[in-house]
Amino acid sequence: MKDVISTLEHYLTPVGLAKLLAIPNRDVHRFVAKAVDLCEPMKVFVCTDAQEDIDYIRRTAIARGEETELAINTQTVHFDGFFDQARDKGHTQYLVPKGESLGEQVEQIDRDIGLKEVEERMKGCMHNKKMVIRFFCLGPLDSDFSIPCVQITDSFYVAHSEDLLYRTGYEYFKRLPDNKEIFWMLHSSGKLVQSVSIGWQQRGVAIDYLENTVYSYNTQYAGNTIGLKKLALRLAIRKANREDWLAEHMFLMAIHGPEGRKTYLTGAYPSACGKTSTSMVKGATIVGDDLTYLRIINGHVRGVNVEQGIFGIIRSVSQEDDPVIWEVLNSCQPAIYSNVLITEEGYPHWLDDGRPIPPRGVNHSGPWWIGKVDEKGEEIPMAHKNARYTISLKGLPNLDSALEDPQGVKIGGIIYGGRDSDTWVPVQESFNWDHGVLTMGACLESKTTAATLGPSGVRMFQPFSNLDFISIPLGQYIKNHLKFGKSAQNPPRIFAVNYFQQNAEGQYITGKDAKRVWLNWMDRRIHGEVEAIKTPIGYIPRYEDLKMLFREILNKTYAESDYIEQFSIRVPELLEKIDRIEKIYHETVPDAPLELSDALSEQRVRLIEVEKIHGECIAPNKFTST
Ligand code: OXD
Ligand code: MN
Question: Could you give the domains of the chain?
């Protein structure tokens, strides 16, 4: 590569160069020079925080056919290629220097080989394209949590989505101290046909953590391309590991309890297991729905939303179950839909939206009609199961006032939850921080969903809902959690939830709105207002408290028979779970902390003891309240 400035002069217009050089940080100039040298773009657009630059991004996404305007003209739709509509875990790899290993749970490749592959796949990939350079900040600006990020992409859809999802940071970059750590993201959709990326067989995401850089190529699906989302999370987990804080796959919300008190809860559930719908429940306020950084400030665990928007799964969003999201999507707020059905009149429809299915429209397969089949003769559904909406949090009626607080919010409780048919009860509280980390976070299992490629409905080990993004050995990650709790004066309570519990006939046994009750029960526990029943797996609610909350919050009667069915302790299933998890840790996580095997053995002994007295399925009233 020629020297940095002459390379930049070669590719950038004088206006673009002036915008770039207004940022004094030399690493920024070097990264852009390296990117243009590799991708050889036809043109380069440097995007500042100015409204005209931001408008240009949206306009160009539409002009190039990456997005189409809808009947509500603040909204657009984007389609990904047929095979490119979910996160590709198999082709997302860490570039690991020789002699290092991230452990068996993590996809990795020798760094030199990985970089060579990136070079081969990305060399000249923007020949006939325009490159966009954008500056953002993860977390609120000018705070201990802030991480500045540079995103380079040839997709105006990606650049536009990031505008709704992240805090713009061009001005922030201008005032960055020289030594501030920056995350770098370079993306190309590769070859496009009708605005759709067609090189999916050679797609990949390569995480070069030595250089805090992520490369993503031949893919458009936002989970693989929006650098600031799951790509940056992987870098953030490493940074957090070095600096003793936590980077988590968690929503962040406030429950509004009695007398106007607010209690902040943060929760880790795997993708498509209810994070967004939980953070948007009626009566609560949302800080974020997907990514939270947690730090200890003045002895307290405090958290921020890394993002400022939602890239949410739209399947099953309905007026009845999700009134707040529904209202936002039907307002004039900017939104980008992906992989939904668009009717001839320009309105989006999606699976299980509670409305009649339109007879025809356009979806990711092109023109669509009821009964349309693919080349294998299989019926093409109206919309993809992983269809999404992208909106900014700004303007949500239920937005929490602390979104931009540079100190974050004080966390009262942490929740772990997954798609679990037969082990966990709907809500439980751990005995203490370590018990929660070890038997809830580290033991989380969940059935796979359409958010990742591959079959859905398969029970998988999903510790902390963060396994897909963990970039350090898993044992170390767990030790960091234990240490974090010890460093806090009064660590948050830890809870587990299960919205997907089923009966022997395979039917779900809790209503969708019940999650509001479970959340309010947590609030009451945190403030010491309700007692609980001590079981071998943790504390569970008393019937009378839930009955009162169902009445107060949902105006519903809660039958004792429902309580007994939902909160009975299913001993054989819980023991099998311990066996499964122990085996995984034993076989694949050599650095797992000793505390983990102790916690699991103790839990097993407690379960076996109660089984001897009360049998396999134990009703909650067999245990005593504390
Ligand atoms: C997401 C995911 O899109 O986790 O948030 O897949
Ligand atoms: Mn997510």
Answer: 2-66+89-244 (3.40.449.10), 247-297+401-625 (3.90.228.20)
Distance (Å) from CA 147 to ligand 2 centroid: 19
* Percent of the chain scoring above 70 in pLDDT: 100
Residue to mutate, 271, 390, 466, ligand 1, most ligand atoms under 8 Å from C-beta: 271
Set 125, 273, 443, 617: catalytic member: 273
Say how far apart CA 58 and CA 51 lie, in whole Å.
11
For residue range 290-344, what is the model confidence (pLDDT) as tens digits?
999 999 999 999 999 999 999 999 999 999 888 889 999 999 999 999 999 999 9
Mean pLDDT of 514-543: 98
Distance CA 384, CA 472 (A): 33
**Ligand 1 atom closest to Cα of 249?**
4
DSSP string spanning 392-429?
ESTT-TTB-TTTT-TT-EEEEEEEEE---SSSS-SEEE
Q: Which structure tokens are listed for 410?
A: 């004080």
The DSSP call for residue 354 is: S
Share of the chain above pLDDT 90, in %: 90
Q: Which residues of 588-598 are buried (b: 16+ CB within 10 A; e: fewer)?
A: ebeebbebbee
Q: Is 273 part of the annotated catalytic residue set?
A: yes
CB of 271 shorter than 6 A to ligand 1: yes
Strands 409-417 and 493-497, bridge-based pairing: parallel
- Alpha carbon nearest to ligand 1 atom 4, residue: 271
Identify the residue whose C-alpha is closest to ligand 1 atom 3: 223
Compute the distance from residue 339 Cα to the ligand 1 centre, in Å.
15
- pTM, whole model, 2 decimals? 0.96
Find the 270 Cα to ligand 2 centroid distance in Å.
7
- What is the sign, positive or negative, of the torsion defined by CA atoms of 499, 504, 505, 509? negative
The pLDDT confidence band at residue 146, using thresholds 50, 70 and 90, is: very high
278 lines ligand 1 (CB under 6 A): no
Take residue 622 and report the two structure tokens written for it: 């067999």
The atom of ligand 1 lying closest to the CA of 452 is 6
Q: Which residues contact 380 (CB under 8 A, 6 or more apart)?
A: 363, 365, 368, 372, 373, 374
Exposed e or buried b for every residue in 278-317, given b needs 16+ CB within 10 A? bbbbeebbbbbbbbbbbbbbeebbbbbbbbbbbbbbbbbb
576 Cβ contact list (under 8 Å, min separation 6): none
Give the list of residues 6+ apart from residue 541 with CB closer than 8 angstroms, or none. 427, 521, 530, 532, 533, 567
Ligand 1 atom closest to Cα of residue 468: 4
**Ligand 2 mean position to 624 CA, how many Å?**
38
